[in-house]
Amino acid sequence: MSTRPDDRTDETTEDRTEMYDAMSHPHRRWAVDAVETCGALDLQGVVAHVLRREGLTGEDSRQNVAVGLYHVHLPKLDDAEFVEFDRDEQTVAPGDRITPATARFESGTAALSD
């Protein structure tokens, strides 16, 4: 008998790891919250939501959040299918995995040992 987990277990573990990685940064969580709450937004709408939720003000904060979202956070969320990020149009829409992911995080039941 093999002690290696079956492929389904490996896939589930990989999916969970990807989900936790994608949702590990607060700006990514606020970006998901923005499109879950408001639907499709332009990049500046997501930036404004993150700034409000983080309590950040000023042009430097706006610029830093916008650059981070555009180059790091939204592409990571797009790769994980939590949002659909169009770099050319600078729009963000809910992705296929947004509802299951946010439901787990909001309920507080998303434990690493799941």
Q: How many structural domains can be distinguished in the coordinates?
A: 1
State the CATH class.
Mainly Alpha
Order of helices and strands: HHEHHEEH
Tell me the strand percentage band.
5-15%
Major sheet attributes? 3 strands, antiparallel
Shape: globular
* Count of helical regions: 5
Mean pLDDT: 85
Which key phrases capture this entry?
114 residues, mainly alpha, Arc Repressor Mutant, subunit A, 3-stranded antiparallel β-sheet, 5 helices, 3 strands, 63% helix, disordered C terminus
Topology:
Layout: H1 7-22, H2 26-38, E1 41-42, H3 43-54, H4 59-79, E2 83-86, E3 91-94, H5 98-107
Antiparallel strand pairs: 1-3, 2-3
Helix pairs in contact: 2-3, 2-4, 3-4
Report on this structure.
The protein is mainly alpha-helical. The chain has helices at residues 7-22, 26-38, 43-54, 59-79, 98-107; strands spanning 41-42, 83-86, 91-94. Strand 2 (83-86) and strand 3 form a beta hairpin. It is globular and about 45 Å long. The chain starts with 6 loop residues before the first helix and ends in a 7-residue tail after the last helix. Mean pLDDT is 85; it is low at 107-114. This is DUF7344 domain-containing protein.
In short:
This protein has 114 residues and is mainly α. It contains five helices and three strands; from the N terminus they run ααβααββα. Helix content is 63%, strand content 9%.
